[in-house]
Amino acid sequence: MKKKSIIVLLLLSFFCKEQGVKIEQIGKESITTTKFEIYYETYIEKASRLANAEKKTLFELMCNPEKIPQDPAIQEMIMGLEPKNSYQKYREMKIIEQAAKLEGFDKKPIIKNILEQVLLETLVNLYIQEKMQNQIKISDTQIENKCQELRKQDRRIENLNVEQCLKFAEAVLKQEIIKVEYPKLMNEIKESVQIQKNFEFDKDKYLEEGITLFKEMQKIGNCPTSLQKKEK
After folding, report:
1. Is residue 19 within 8 Å of residue 29, measured between CB atoms?
2. Is the terminal CB of the chain with fewer CB neighbours within 10 Å at N or C?
3. Tens-digit pLDDT profile for the chain (232 aa)?
């Protein structure tokens, strides 16, 4: 019996550790430290990817508020790196989520479709971004040379300190690489997926004449008659 009790206690201890400590109850959901920390870590990862910036850069801005650009979106993103601010946002979203679910809002067909579309767009953007980042290989020497090159071309860059110049040079190099490599990457991705066309279906005619909603939009929007006839 003692052996069984010990096993049960160990299992309970492991389960509680995995679930974390309960912070509060929001509607039907129990908010735990584990759930919030997963949200918090994901927020940081998302901010880094969507801003196309290294986490170190974001952390430096958080620690040096005076360096944060005067951009409301960037300011809000950096504020979210503070646990208190992040939890407040998480808490508010969970409250609204519970209210939405109580009303069955998440079950509406159009809402489901919008969520699926947002998921598709986000997946595509994150996938391409990660693939692109994996192809960007820049050495310290290249960055230093680019910094010197930019200093000669622009007086404003000449006034930057070494650290600022190197960061700017690295960003410029990345953009130059992306400009060249992006079309190649897109071709590689498209070639990796098999596509079978239905030659019995006239796709062009369908897109030009077969979308009833688009025709209604043209009428409501008072599109030129010539354009509407072209679509018929």
Report:
1. no
2. N
3. 455 555 544 444 544 456 789 999 999 999 999 999 999 999 999 999 988 888 999 999 999 999 899 999 999 999 999 999 999 999 999 999 999 999 999 999 999 999 999 999 999 999 999 999 898 889 999 999 999 999 988 888 888 889 889 989 998 999 999 999 999 999 999 999 999 999 999 999 999 999 999 999 999 999 987 655 555 5
Phi, psi of 211 (to 5 degrees): -95, 100
The SS3 of residue 44 is helix
117 φ, ψ to 5°? -65, -40
pTM of the model: 0.77
Collapse the DSSP code of 224 into the 3-class scheme (helix H, G, I; strand E, B; otherwise coil) and give the result: coil
CA distance 146 to 174: 11
Question: Alpha-carbon torsion 204, 209, 215, 221, what sign?
Answer: positive
d(CA 108, CA 87): 28
Helices assigned H by DSSP within 80-139: 83-102, 109-135
DSSP one-letter string for 141-161: HHHHHHHHHHHHH-HHHHTS-
- Residue 147: which residues within 8 A CB-CB, separation 6 or more? 157, 162, 165, 166, 168, 169
Please answer whether residues 47 and 56 qualify as being in contact, where contact means their C-beta atoms are separated by less than 8 angstroms. no
Distance (Å, whole) CA 173 – CA 143: 8
